[in-house]
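Worked example 4.2. Below are the chains of a multi-component assembly; read each line carefully before continuing.
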Amino acid sequence: MELRILSLVSERYRRHVPALAGLGLAVFLWLTFYTVRETEFVLVTQFGRPVYTVAEAGLHAKWFFRTATYFDRRLRIYNPRPSEFLSRDKKNLVIESYVAWRIQDPKRFVETVGDPVAAEMRLHDIVWSGLSAALGTVDLESIVSTNRQAVEAARLQDRLSEAADRAALAQYGIQVVDVRIKRLNLPEQNKQSVFARMRAERERIARQYRAEGEEQALRIRADADRQREEILSAAYKEAEKTKGEGDAEATRVYSQAYSRNPRFYKLLRTLESYKKILDDKTTLILSSDSELLKVLMRGENAQ
Amino acid sequence: MSRRGILGGVAVLWLASSVYIVPADQQAVETRFGAVVSPRVMPGIHISLPWPIDRVYRLKVQQLQRLVVGGEISDGVLGRTEPRASQFLTGDQNIIHMRVAVQYSVGVPADYLFRTDGVARAVGAAVESALAERISSRTVDAVLTTEKAAIQEEVRASAQKLLNDYRAGVILSTVNLETVTPPPEAADAFRDVASARADSSRIVNQSMGYANDVIPKARGEAQQLLEAGQGYKLKKVNEAQGDAARFTQVAAEYSRAADVNGRRIYLETMEQVLPRIKKLIVDKNGNLDLTIIRKGDNPPPQK
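Applying the procedure described above to all two chains together yields the following structure tokens:
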């Protein structure tokens, strides 16, 4: 081919031939070799018609008349607008989600969508209809609940990701890696009633705390009072017992001593009683014949 | 300078570009024609093929990057004075406001560089989704008080798992719940619960104070009773023993001359008793006008 070109050009331009040949070679090489980076796919097209896809990063060669089109193969995060959905039990929920996606089949992608912005619009539709269908089959309780067994959110998200992946891959050559719920919220018009409910709930809890404190306090006081009575009465019992022992012992000692000489005891005790019975208010009428006054009346021989 | 010299200089510089240094706090990824050849080049001096065949990407792998999820900070420049609501729905369908700070670093440099378009967005999305899931399975009280640490760890682990699935090449080092507050619409009710809890523990403490006062006092009183009982017993027994000893002594002497002693004791007693009292002495056969007794202390009137 070069020989024919050379024969056509005149002798005068012959000295430029090496330079031209070099340039031609450079252009040829430029059109033949291309690099694919880790972040990219290359779709090789022939006059606009896709021929094949190169996913392997590195240096590659193609026919010079074919063109390479580059596509970003990195994972992208797309955040659809928050939208309101209705659960099976007719409750409104505002859901914010995100979609992690990447181009999987550049050929299909370029044929159907073309660029990432358009792709995200399509993804929005897929995810929206998926979410709305999925939420229609579950109650609010099974997404938002303290009962972990009942929470189906994880399964719902898995199902949703799978369905979205299937749809997006078949239609647009897009792989949906994950669709996940980022934020669950209630619509603005419902929030006021939720706040009112929260307040009521708090008030109930506050009352409960106070009442429980009262209960505990009363219990502690009652227990303390009981303990006091218990301690005091036990001590009383013990003290009386001890006193009784003392009395018994004293009685025993007395009786032991007195029973040895009961006559003297009787005399002594009787005289002792006189001292107490006879005080200055007493008027004693004594017979002159009495033991005490016999001597007074009759002199010594009265003995 | 000759043309050859310039060309030579350029060639040397070109070759020199194949030597590169990775500083101590960094790691590098080396690519050849876009394909990764060395996914993790450690710090030091290294040789690669010259540009544009090889390219070197350096990364500060240990540097922590910070990201805030939820609770967008108010922005005076944009005229936004109120922070945007970062509301989450709890399992018992309460609304709470949260702000979460995430710190992450590079785990797998090649993945970090080439797998994801916008690593920060992926991290934010994964953390937010994990957070929403954890919050929606807990009660508002658990979120506000006891389970903060558990939530942080669970969110970190679960978001890390998501990011590993996405091959984002990052390591989440901490997920920190910076602010967790009830919505302002119900904040005072929440505060009242806190003060109710304080009230409750205050009255419980007061009653414990009462118990701590009453019971030791009762114990003291009980001891007093017991001691008094013991004292009484000792007193009684000792008195009895004393009396008995005295009696025994006297009785021994008495029985030696019972008649004389009996009379003596009798008379001694009379001496003690009679001086204090009024006495009327009547003759053995005499009659007594009892009216004088009734007049008591007054001297009999003259008739």
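Take a moment to check your reading of the output against the notes. Chain A has a mean pLDDT of 86. The radius of gyration of chain A is 58 Å.
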